[in-house]
Specification:
It contains 17 helices and 9 strands. By secondary structure, the protein is mainly α. The protein has a single domain, classed as Glycosyltransferase, CATH 1.50.10. Helix 1 runs antiparallel to helix 17 and helix 2 runs parallel beside helix 5. Bound molecules: (2R)-2,3-dihydroxypropanoic acid.
């Protein structure tokens, strides 16, 4: 297929997964609106339908809780094909619509800025409406998920990288006693060897039950949850998003000083994520140690405008070790698994964020190389949820919204390069 046919196929995926005001990540496996999926979808739509892009973000923020938290799933319409549904989360009365009780990586401000920059005249009213909501969400992270400028998560689903080795020690420290009986639905849609294990799921559900028993109280969850891991992806994504929000503040004539303070705090705090090898890595706040891993999140430093010669050297290794980098776990490391979700597969969404960061920091050759290899992987293997980094074989869900969006906005030759 030539790239124009692939552009059309990618647009068709966005249209097919479009529910009117929001977009499903993919049919079957994920039948609701997911937070960061939706932000990527908006950026994909912005390549051919800017009104639809703004609608995606507006619908997403219609689920924001009064405390500023933007949930990771909005259950617009009940669907038995997914577990855990709204009955398990039991967040009734916390937000305007049924939702989960945790958030997800705050990429929305970055894409809002990029969509605005495409057409400032059309976008002005939209960013004026979204700006206070984005600030309230970022303030929620800075208030309740901030440890000395490192952003931590209280559930693996909050960071989006569900079974990343970064969380292994925190997960092993949990004894999931008392977890209610449940039936997984994900393995009815995707081969179990590509998904988290039963041991992971027992702990995912146990953590939901525990936060539920704390009434989803911000202070209690932040203090008492046994799972508390500072995350390079969350930290670099929020750092970048704060800068983008400050640029939107300038466009609107709003005060940006609070945003600049957060940016300074996160820039300093991110250094605490460096492990002994100098790699940005998960940090278990309860046990006081790094995970000792190189993940694709480690390479998001440039997206947060943080320079790292060590990570540039690691990137060259990733280029040498895998035909389709960047693997979510270093090839050859003990926990590497080419097919299992966030323990090895390559994710196009993370590649795009890494590539944007590399380009912003002047590493043009590396940015071009990453984009070219990602484009080849997608042209040869379609728009999968994730890919085997060694062979490019598709894995997880098919016809995936955010992968199609990444094609349209970044990987396709029509996107105009980094
Ligand atoms: C899932 O259900 O697999 C999701 O990652 C949770 O958000």
């Amino acid at each position: 297929m030539n790239h124009l046919a692939l552009d059309e196929a990618a647009r068709a995926i966005l249209r097919k997964n479009d529910q009117g005001g929001y977009t499903l990540p993919t049919y079957g496996l994920y039948p609701y609106q997911w937070n960061w999926d939706s932000a990527f979808a908006a950026w994909g739509f912005a390549q051919f339908d800017i009104d639809r892009a703004w609608l995606e973000l507006t619908t997403l923020f219609s689920g924001q809780w009064p405390n500023g938290m933007l949930p990771h799933i909005l259950f617009h319409k009940p669907d038995p094909r997914y577990f855990p549904g709204q009955d398990v989360w039991d967040t009734d009365g916390k937000g305007p619509i049924a939702s989960s009780g945790i958030s997800q990586p705050p990429v929305a401000a970055t894409f809002a800025r990029m969509i605005y920059d495409k057409d400032p005249q059309e976008g002005r009213a939209h960013i004026a409406a979204l700006f206070p909501k984005l600030v309230a969400w970022h303030r929620w992270f800075m208030s309740w998920r901030n440890s000395d400028g490192m952003i931590f998560i209280t559930h693996p689903w909050e960071g989006g990288r569900d079974n990343a080795p970064d969380w292994d020690s925190a997960m092993q420290a949990i004894d999931p006693v008392g977890v209610d009986a449940y039936t997984r639905r994900d393995t009815a849609h995707v081969d179990a060897s590509m998904r988290p294990t039963k041991e992971d799921y027992d702990r995912y559900i146990w953590l939901v039950q525990r936060a539920r028993s704390l009434g989803w109280d911000d202070a209690k969850v932040a203090q008492d949850q046994p799972f508390k891991v500072a995350d390079p992806l969350m930290t670099f994504v929020l750092l970048r998003a704060n800068r983008d929000l400050a640029a939107l503040a300038d466009a609107l004539g709003e005060d940006r000083r609070e945003l600049d303070r957060w940016t300074a705090e996160l820039t300093t705090g991110a250094q605490g994520l460096r492990n002994d090898a100098g790699v940005f890595d998960g940090y278990n706040l309860n046990l006081g140690h790094h995970a000792g891993t190189v993940s694709n999140a480690s390479f998001l430093c440039w997206f947060g405008l943080v320079e790292s010669p060590k990570m540039l050297a690691e990137l060259q290794e990733a280029f040498a070790d895998s035909r389709y980098p960047v693997p979510s776990q270093k090839v050859g490391s003990g926990s590497f698994n080419a097919k299992r979700y966030w323990r090895g597969p390559t994710w196009a969404i993370v590649n795009m964020l890494i590539g944007l960061g590399l380009a912003d920091m002047g590493h043009t050759a590396e940015a071009d190389e990453l984009r070219a290899r990602t484009a080849k992987m997608m042209s040869e293997h379609g728009f999968a949820e994730y890919y085997d980094p060694l062979t490019g074989a598709p894995a997880g869900g098919a016809s995936f919204t955010w992968t199609a969006a990444v094609w349209l906005a970044w990987a396709s030759p029509s996107a105009g390069g980094v």
